[in-house]
Amino acid sequence: MIYIIYFILTINFLFPFDHSFNQKSIENLKNYIDNNDLFANDGSSYFSSSFVRIDSFADSSIDMLVQCFTKAAEWDEFLKVKEKLAIQVKEIIENEKVIWSGCYELDEIGSGENSAMAKLVSITLSAGIDLILDYKLKAGVQAAPSDKNIIEYFFKILKKHNISIHKRQ
Q1: Of the candidates 100, 96, 65, 69, the residue with the CA atom closest to the CA atom of residue 82
Q2: Can you give the pTM of this predicted structure?
Q3: Alpha-carbon torsion (54, 55, 57, 62), positive or negative
């Protein structure tokens, strides 16, 4: 029996991203599938071919459509192949040094007039004003920045003020 692996894979990145990166990722994933004995991939029939395509661009992700067929004869074996494929996708992306989007938490304790919220707001506001004055950030209301250098600047300023930054798991 041949099992099909067919899924839409949503990969969240920080924007902007380079289109050549996307093409390289697609090619690397397709090569992994086509050159791996776990998959029915000789191209001799529909059930022996694979494809990896960009399905859509969302606000902070690239949705990739992946279809391939395994040689697995048992459900458990199929699930192991699917898991290996998911891990390979993660490794391909990480090897290309992409910044994944993520949710960060700032950890601060306040006291009296220096409440945690007041400290966090005033420090990030001050950093934002510095970036506006340096023409690195546009003035006005906008979404959280996606430029790596700007994010690193905010983190550097927060760390300078002993604010703990944790990436949410």
Answers
A1: 69
A2: 0.52
A3: negative
pLDDT tens for 39-73 read: 887 666 666 678 888 777 665 566 777 878 887 77
User: Residue 99, SS3?
Assistant: coil
How far is 118 from 125, CA to CA, in rounded Å?
10
Element of type H or E holding 47? none
- In SS3 terms, 106-143 reads as EECCCECCECHHHHHHHHHHHHHHHHHHCCCCCCCCCC
Q: Which residue has the tokens 């991203």?
A: 17
CB-neighbour burial class of residue 88 (10 A; exposed 0-12, middle 13-18, buried 19+):
middle
As a whole number, mean pLDDT of residues 76-85 equals 86
Determine which helix (DSSP H) or strand (DSSP E) holds 63, and give its type and residue range: strand 61-70
**Cα dist. 64→6, 22, 41, 123, 152 in Å?**
11, 10, 19, 38, 28
DSSP label of 67: E
Closest residue by Cα to residue 92 from 41, 43, 36: 36
Q: DSSP class of residue 15?
A: S
* Whole-number Å distance between alpha carbons of 157 and 169: 23
Strand partners, 65: 8, 53
